[in-house]
Structure formats: C-alpha cells, structure tokens
Amino acid sequence: MLATPTSSARPSTAHAESEPCRAQHRHVARCPDRAVLNALICRGESSEMPMTGSPANGENAHVWRGWQHSVDDADMDILARTAANRRLVADFFDDLDQEQLETASLCEAWTVREVLGHLVMPMAGGLGGFLLKVVRAGGSVNRASEATARELARRPVRELTALLRDKADDHVRAPGVGPMGQMTDGCVHLRDCARPLGLPDDVSADDWRMVLDWLPTGVPGLVPKRRLEGLSVQATDQDWSWGKGDEIVGPSEALAMAVSGRAVALDDLSGSGVELLRHRLNA
After folding, report:
1. Does residue 254 contact residue 269 with C-beta atoms inside 8 Å?
2. Rounded to whole angstroms, how far apart are CA atoms 225 and 215?
3. Which of the chain's termini has less CB crowding within 10 Å, N or C?
4. 59 vs 121, higher pLDDT
C-alpha cells in the first residue's frame, strides 16, 4: 500500500507538465486531463441533444434514436460498458472505510476519495463554474480539475456514488478522446484506487482488451504517440498482442496501467522491453 500523504505534503502543481497523465515518479501519475473540459464544453454546447438512457433497456429511446446517425453499434457497446463500470465503481467506493478513502491513489494529486470527486465532475457541474475555476487557477485546466475534484470529494461518499449510479447512462461527446476516453477513464481510475489498497476490484478482461486496442498508438493528453515505439506488448490472460520489438508481457490490467503512465504496474510485467518503458515513463 502506498503511503497516504497529507494535503499539505502533496506535490505542487504550479509548474506541472502539459501532458496531464505523465508519470512523475515510480509510483504515481498526474491524472487530471483535458477530457474533463471537453466533456463540460459539450454539456454546455449540446444540451439540446443529451445522450442519456441505456440502449439496452430502452429508456429514453427517443433520445437514442436521435443519435443513431452518429453513434454506431461499436460505440453503443462502449457506452453500455461505461455505464456498467460506473455502477461497479460506485459499489467499490461504497465499501471503503474512512482510512481507505484517505489513502493516496496512483494519481499524484488525489487521495482515493478525491478520485471519486474527479469521476463525478462531468455529472456534477457546468461549464461556466469550471471555467471560472480555470481563471482562478491561472488558466490551468489541470489545477482547476484537481481543485474541483477535491471540492466535490468533501461531499458524503454515498451522495457521490448515488450521483454516479443515477447518471451512469448519461454520456457526452468528448472531442479528441471519444467514447473510449470516457470508458478508459473509469477502468484506469478504478485501479488507481484499488491497487494501492491491495483490493482485487477490476473491470472485465474484455474491457481491458478494448482499452489495450485503443491506447498503443497514442491518446491526446494520456499516451504519447511514441511511448510504445519499438516494443512488442503481449497479454498473458487473453489472446491479445500489439507491436514489434523488445517484449513486454503480463496481465491485461497491468499492461494498460503501465501504458497509461502508472509505472508501479511495471513490477507486474516481464520482458526485455520493461526497462525501456520504465525509462520513458520517468523521462
């Protein structure tokens, strides 16, 4: 279990790198990302076309029909998985005690409880209020995101998990990352909290396969395009591989966490390419 820092001991973000989830040292990553702002912007500009309801259960079917011209079957599957994982994440947080909630997550800026605040951000606030926070943070989306997550985390956990469940089927367009960005956010942040607590809570292997299919070629603000250049990545728990070069082998979850900047996950991987990836994460 990682040490739990006090709020006064948290690393300063005043001169943070522009890449939101770039690993800062062996164990943690900076996690606020531009997808939050993108989501809020979309809420503000597209409120006349909210994407709500589940395609599986028929709720708000008229809304889903309105989106069918732009959302294909693959995207509908991603949205359904995202909704299911939000409920899974809500159950996870409901089972934690106070000590666990105050444990440092794998995100440098946040405790486990504050990661929950981050996950409900697109559901709990509007664009105007967030932009005001950006101005107060000197124009930094990252610092505004970190501060907003901490602010939301002061609310009762049950209130936040209820919001996560109630809004599980609500989706917004996120330019630059799309539906997979929102799905990946939930998968990775669940493990950002469960790993340091030594808990097994996780998403399915199929979910990790989809995340692994999406990450390797680069994701704005999360994975640099050349992070896996010259590397061959192979899962040991399912039939999945990517790339050519020095080998990195291990469980799907550890592969995805490492590729997304969580260097602690490298300890669960093996192969001649592990140290090269470690160097890139720590560069």
Report:
1. yes
2. 9
3. C
4. 121
**Overall average pLDDT of the 145-168 stretch:** 94
How far apart, in whole angstroms, are the C-alpha atoms of residue 254 and residue 63? Answer: 37
For residue 26, what are the CA distances in angstroms to 107, 150, 182, 230, 278? 12, 24, 25, 22, 8
Residue 235, strand partner residues: 250
- How far apart are the C-alpha atoms of 171 and 173, rounded to whole Å? 7
- Fill in the DSSP letter of residue 68: T
How confident is the model at residue 145, as a pLDDT? 84
User: Are the CB atoms for 157 and 120 separated by under 8 Å?
Assistant: no
Strand partners, 107: 29
Q: CB within 8 A of 15, min separation 6: which ones?
A: none
- pLDDT of 71: 60
The candidate with the shortest Cα–Cα distance to 124, out of 101, 150, 99, is: 150
Calpha distance 31→28 (Å, rounded): 9
Contacts of 246 (CB under 8 A, 6+ apart): 230, 231, 232, 271, 272, 273, 276
Helix (H, G, I), strand (E, B) or coil at 246: strand
pLDDT tens for each residue of 170-229: 887 766 788 999 999 999 999 999 999 999 999 999 999 999 999 999 998 889 999 999
* Distance (Å, whole) CA 234 – CA 237: 9
